[in-house]
Design brief:
The chain is about 50% helix and about 20% strand. It starts with a strand and ends with a helix. It is elongated and about 70 Å long. The mean pLDDT is about 85. With about 80 residues, it is of the alpha+beta class.
Length: about 80
């Protein structure tokens, strides 16, 4: 993702909007620190959606609530 200073973003705003509409995203900085994000609106591309799904699946595979769900379920039955 491209980083751009706020002054340059102001002077090239129309160009940045056009580039964002084509799918590019920008971080706008103020005094060198991130202040805003300019990104395309609309549907995400398939590759980024698949990457997000893979990341979530990997997190779920290693995550644990530390609770025996079957035991908790059976414990409520008398």
């Amino acid at each position: 993702m491209t980083s751009i200073g706020s002054y340059e973003a102001k002077t090239k705003f129309a160009e940045l909007i056009e580039r964002a509409a084509e799918g590019e995203a920008f971080i706008i900085t103020r005094h060198g620190k991130p202040a805003a994000k300019l990104c395309p609106i609309g549907e995400r591309d398939q590759a980024s959606c698949l990457a997000a799904i893979e990341t979530l699946e990997a997190l779920c595979a290693h995550a644990s609530l530390g609770v025996d769900l079957q035991g908790a379920k059976n414990g409520g039955r008398r």
